Amino acid sequence: MRDPSNQVQVVKNLRISVNNVVTRPSVPSSGVPGHAHRRLLSEVVLTCQPAEGGVANVITAGDYDLNISATTPWFEAYRESFLQSMPASDHEFLNHYLACLLVVSSSEAVPVEKFLKLSQEQHRIQHSGEYTNPKWFIPNTLKYYVLLHDMMTQTPQTCKCAHAHNIFNPLTSDMKQRYGAQGCYLLKVNSRTAAAGADEQIPDPWSQYLHKSSLQSQVQLGPRLSVPSIYLLMYRTSEVDGHDSEEKDGVLVNSLDNTHPLQLDTPSDTPGSLDALRAVAVETKPPPLATGVAAATSHGACLTLNDHDRIRLFIQEFTFRGLLPHIEKNIRQLNDQLVSRKGLSRSLFSATKKWFGGGKVPEKSIAELKNTSGLLYPPEAPELQIRKMADLCFLVQLYDLAYSCYHTAKKDFLSDQAMLYAAGALEMAAVSAFLQVGAPRPYPAHYMDTAIQTYRDVSKNMVLAERCALLSAEVLKSQAKYSDAATLLIKMTSEDSDLRSALLLEQAAHCFINMRNPMVRKFAFHMILAGHRFSKAGQKRHALRCYCQAMQVYKGKGWSLAEDHINFTIGRQSFTLRQPENAVTAFRHILTNDSQQTSTQQGAFLREYLYVYKNVTGACEVALPQLPLPCINSSATRVYFGHERRLAEGEKQAATHVSLDQEFDRDLAAMWQDLEEKVVAAAKRGVVPATFQSTQCCLNSQTDNLRFPLAVVEEPIIVEVVFRNPLKVPLVLSDLSLLWKFTLKDFNRPQPQEDSVGDAVPISNEKEASVPRARLKLLPHQTGQLNILGLVYNLASTSSTGDTTINTAEGTSVRGRQDLEIQGPRLNQTKEEKTSVSHGPDRRLDPTITPPMPLLEVFFLQFPTALLCGEIRKAYVEFCNMSRVTLCGLRVASTHPDFFTFGSSSLATPLTPLSPTSFENCSAYKTLATPPGATPGSVAAVTLVSEGDFGSGTGLRGGGVSGAGKGITEIPLGEGTLKPGESTQLPMWLRGPDQEGVHEIHFLFYYESAEKGGKISHRVLRHTVFICASRSLSVRATACRSNTLPEEEEERNGSMLVFVDVENINSSEAGVREFHIAQVSSSSKQWRLHKCINPAEDKDCKLTSRERGKLCFRATRCKPLQEGKKRSAFPFSKSGVSSLQIITSTTPCADFFFRRCQPLESLRPPVAMETQGRHSRSQGVGHGGGDKDIAGVVRKCNEVDLDIIILWKAFVVEDNKQVILEGQLHVALQTIDKEACSLTQKEEAQEMVLLKFKPELPPPMTRPSMEQLSHLIKTNLQYPESYSHPFNQKSLCMVPVTLTLSNCSLAQVDVIIDLRHKATSPESLEVHGSFTWLGQTQFKMQLGAQEVMRVQLRACFLHAGVYNLGTPRVFAKLADQGAMCETSQQTATPALIIIINST
């Protein structure tokens, strides 16, 4: 078409809307939508839902990956319906009718008369003033006359006529003469019957207009905005009945009927609001008026493809020959009227006002001018003519001319304070500026803002304000001004329409997320607001969708309260929409997370969840679903294999073994494993099997669970599950049971029995409450593989009053399950495992059920809890075989093997009653009366015993330093076995630890099955006791050399004095009245106690509190034993201080001696042990040179291998009754003149050695010290105590003196004797007189090993007096050490001689 300047303008995508004549408005003119209109828009949004599996955009913003729908078709459908249902307004002409279609059926007798009547009727409606609707664009409305012919009404006779195609020629010719060729048209439709169309697939011509997908055409973004709707009038006569309408494809409808012939099957009474005619076709649909029900599926079934072409041709003819020329004509006329008067004024506006000045309304007051209803222009007003021209130009895409007219009209309206008119002009001016080709001017967004504010605040017309906001938002989004668009949309939200507010808030949220820097949290917040408003508007599905999209932002970011609110809303909406699975999932998130909600709110969440969950489980009974509460700490699950610990029965105390009530201690577990390895090695002849696996009765997260644990058939398996309640309200669990799977091996019917502990377990979350646990038991009856899968239970909440009483009958209770999935330890061995995160298996819930095994139970009778240090006490142990399998190979290992003994099996041990009532005055020692006439303390008796007779065969003396059997004791059974159901009782002697305090002592009982070849090679039983040791006696011993040379034959090998210092260090609180030293015995391969040197009147040694006594004994060397006995025999010598001797070479005295904690070998320094051993080996081949041999020889001179055993009795008062306690203490003498003590000196800072930060170097091999070398030779002077000499007769007194030298070493020694003539100091001259030695004054000789040599000397005195003869100095060195200097030997005590003048 041509514009007013005669330039050809191309009109693109022209769209025509055809409606019937409706004389009442669909929307009130006040701008407030009615109920029907709101319901229509609500239904449009409700029926448009996101497609299942539709395309979604994945937007990455920072740490967020959001899955958002690519389009919002529900908003586009709402926008389309809203714009189509806009009411026609007086201040604008966009929705006014431009033309009228007058349609008459060819079946009318005189169609021309009908056309005339229709034309008159239209004229009356438009110009009579009786009807306010519909509104007409211009007074001279285009009338287009259509003669509609239904091809199905032709009769066979008519069809047979040769000139049937010419029957309409006279009629059409008459119409062309009357209305012109461009004003009328003959349309033929319904060329076939409906039955004939059953076999052919003819496309539905109206489907694309009836079922709209997305609104991409009404408001298109880009350089152009398509024409809104050009409203036409489609009219027909009222004489056509329903049958004819159905047969004629429904083109005509009743006059003034409110039902559009093409609308969808909706209850809305708004005509044409849903169905706009698109493209270049007329939108029609047959309304079956006879039935009142619209066709649901197919339309245009009687139309052929030729009919489709005829309809398209009809629309083209109407548009090109009628409508567009009519519009072009009116634009030209309006423009000519305005331009012709342009020269009369400087502005088009002034000229227009003068041209149309006759219709100006009188002036109004200021108050009335500011009100939009206070100023109304008449239809012929020049301002409205300018607006009308602008609207016409806008409809045919003449946007540049339209903008000029809108801009001119805007100024005029503003000058007249006609705010409603001005707002309309501002709105369309902004749209026209945006749609101009090439965008010569920027988009005036402030025009839109002013228009919206005027519509909303001044005119109070929310419909127009919403339309303006929708248009402006689309324009801003097309220009990527998302922030401005979001602000505009948020401003349009209000309380009067929840649906509009929800849609606008959702669009604002999408604006936030589509910005260059996406504002994720604002997107989520506004989606929540939109979901809330959708929910208030009844749009449940859209509300759920909004909450779900917002959940992507809040999930897992610490917004716990917001997350709870969203999940709760999602759960409720899902349940309302009959999506119970989604509801359960949402409620699960509320309950499993650590919520910050109050207890009341959490209780409401829990009750809501249980209600929803129960409805879900009631609907489908398939499998037990997973429950979210309470939280199960799977890694803390513990599995116990075996019967629970038995309590004490009367005087019997059962072994502690392993219990679920005990906490796991890694160091303690390593100690038990070490004990088990030792006892297994002792049982397997010193070799630990390669398949050895330590026994683990209780498995937890810290044990080794890589292997399948072994359980025994008919022995229970107890599973302890640890719960955690994340809520602040109590939970009630009932009917707990385990889920398991069993695979039978070698048997047919697996029947494990399942037991649940307790009826109900209330779980609270109070901080002071202990961790809630549940213990469930499985009892396998067959062998095979068992897999424990999970837990089944009933979950209920307490009443809202807070009463924790378990009563699930009143509240909602549901049954579900939770799986026990335990993650194994992380693997970190290979390079691949270190670079990746991989975990090993955890088999604690997958035990293997093995054949029956023996089951041992141990009971202790009269077992004390407190002992004195060194006290000997007798107790009894009862061993019971509780299984159906014979038991054998019973052994025991302990961390304190010196604490107990079962006695010697080789020596005759005095029998003890099996069930003694008390230990009062019942000695644990075997005694022997002293022979008549013998004096206590005289020559001691000697007994030879073997260490192997008292457990040395298992190496107890070694203390577990080397060898597999150190510290292992075989328990003697009757026949070596214990049959099923049998029990035996054995005596057990205990000795109190040497150190005071509380001692933790562990026993490990080992036993095997008499039936070999099972999966379990052995079993163990653990027992732990705590013994409180109180102080008793402190014994200190010292060995000194005897200066006298022995004359008796048995003392020729040497003798020494042993001093024993005994102190009572017991406190009076223990009730000990006094201690008696009953006997002192010794054990050594080299020395023995010979006799006791005590005053004759001291018959007994009694010590009360804090008293001390000292005993002196003479020790002599033992006679050399035969070579076969040297390694095994230990001579025991007893030197008693009372008349009743204790046989120390039998049980239990000898047992505890050999089991003492620190034997001589372990007390010596490591270097000394090594040196002694090497020297002993090299001694047989001669004295080789070297510092090692020198040190060994020299040290051997001072060594004493003598053990002292002190046996005592204590008199204790308990319950007004005196009780005698017995005990023994051990002292190990090692070196001459070095004190040894029975108690370890606490002053020795042993910990200081452990604080060295540098590695300690091995000590260098040092030469013997001067002190050690000074003890090689022992000297002794033999002389008369007094000597008489007549000095008057002879001035010189000659006295013979014998110097005896004794070699104390085992090597040859070179000796030099130097006889001094003068004293070394002047002090000696004053104290003692001066004398001189006569004869040879220096001797050099060599002494063999332990050789004794005598040298005759002569002393010369000049005066009478007291003299000291101890002046000779003796120097010695080893014979084979030539480079070594002689060392001065220690001299004896002063040798005083009295010289008497006989005159």
TrEMBL record:
Domain TPPC8 second Ig-like: 869-1021
Limits of the TPPC8 first Ig-like domain: 661-868
Bias type Basic and acidic residues, positions: 829-845
SUPFAM superfamilies registered for this protein in UniProt: TPR-like
Record domain TPPC8 third Ig-like: where: 1024-1227
Region (Disordered): 802-845
Protein name listed in UniProt: Trafficking protein particle complex 8
Short name of any one Pfam family annotated for the protein: Ig_TPPC8_1st
All residue ranges annotated as the TPPC8 C-terminal Ig-like domain in the record: 1272-1374
Listed GO CC annotations: TRAPPIII protein complex
Compositionally biased residues, Polar residues: 802-811
